[in-house]
Structures are given as C-alpha cells and as structure tokens.
What does this fold into?
Amino acid sequence: MIQDIDIKDLKRITDLVYAKHGYDFRNYAMSSFKRRMLRILEVWGLNIESLLNKLADSTIFIDDFLDEMTVNVTEMFRDPGFWRLLREEIIPGVMLNNKQFKIWHAGCSSGEEVISMNIMLHEMGVKENVKIFATDLDKSILDRARSATYSLKNMETNEKNYVRFQGKTALKDYYTEENGRAVMKKDLLSNVVFQKHDLVLGEAFAKFDLVLCRNVMIYFNQALQNEVLKKFHGSLNKYGYLAIGAKESMIWCDYANRFIVVNQEERIFKKIRD
It folds into this structure.
C-alpha cells in the first residue's frame, strides 16, 4: 500500500524538480499535486526516497514525470455551447478589428481543442486568416497533438459534441480511419505552430486576439493563478478575448478590472485596459 505524503515531502519534490530540471510546481494547488505524486508512486512502484533519487539522477525520467503531472483529459468541441458562442459572437467580434488575427491555446494538451478551433474556423470560411499557437509544458503530449491521431472510441464522444455544436457536416468528414485510429486531415493544422512553453516560468511571446486556457489553472494555487492571468493580460491586444475554464474565476485577480465579462456562464472576458 502506498505511503501517504506530507507537506514536507511535497516541498522536497517541488524544490528538487525546480533546482535540477527548471520546472516550477511550487505554487500548484497542493491537493492536486499530492494526488499526482501518489499516482506516480503507485505507477512506478516507488517510495518518496526512490522517487527523489530518480528525479535527481535521471534526465529521462523527468519526461515521464511531466507526462503524469499534466492532466490531459480533453475532447473535441467539449462544452458545445462555448463553441457556439465563439462562432456566433467572439470570432465575429475579433474580426471587427482584424481580418487576420492570432489565437493562443495555452496548455493545449493532445490537441483536440486546436482541431475543434480549426474545424470551426474552416466552416466559417476564415481559417486562412488565422495563425494559431498551441503550447504545452509536456513535450510528449505536444508530439501527440502534432500527430493529430486519436482513438476511434473517443471519436464517438467528439461526434456527439460536434452535433450539439451544430456543425455544418459530420466530424467523420475531417478524418480517415487507419489501423483503428482516427487520423485528422493534415490541412487542419496548416496554420498551427506547436511549441513547448511553461505557463509558470515562460514569458509572454506574442500579442494575441484570443487566448484560451481552459481547465488548467484549477491546478494552480491563487498566487500562481494571479501571475498567469497577469501574463495573459500582457499577451492580449486591447479588446482581445480570454477564455478560461467553467470552474475557474478571475474575480479576485489583480487585473480583473482591466477586463469586462463577455459571458459569465462560459467564462469569456474582454481586455479593455492595458
């Protein structure tokens, strides 16, 4: 049976990962971080000391560690009402000021959200006017996103979401079946740049008209959420839009008064002040 982990041990892990590998989990919500650590100990059959030794001695193990740390539960057109709002209000709102614009998917995971965005933009007839940057901390998950290949079983849920989104065709028109997998059409990623980026330590790297970071900040403590929201504010053009997760809030954020609420239910905000 896996031992429990106390705060002191969690601090030893986060300090070592930061000092040795440069990844900063020190301001993650401790309850979420603890659950991840318990799972890592169970999956690899480790105790605290052997985990610390592996993290200290192996530059290969850190990739497995990051893969387990980053939560990669996602779907295409997840929360269809959100995507309908993007299609009917947000993207048209962006295009009032810019016919060509940039979108940042921060914490893009295995790419389902990026694929959804480009299917929507394609059906709106504006995909070629949009440059998308998709970033994640985890290199292996970025490789999966680049491959745009998913299990056929998952496509059943994705198809149901697409129907509720009220897409123009059928989701199966956007992929082919190969060896029991769904391989998305490659032109769906023709305008996408995938790159590794650390939301905690990484700098803002461009100005965007729409930033999506949904269901990522729930794993951060309040201080870190505040810092990340500050980074998003600096990454947005004036009157640009920010979309966060349904269980996330920016009411208490230092920069909250620089945004207005566009849609509270779908957690979409507009930057109105630098």
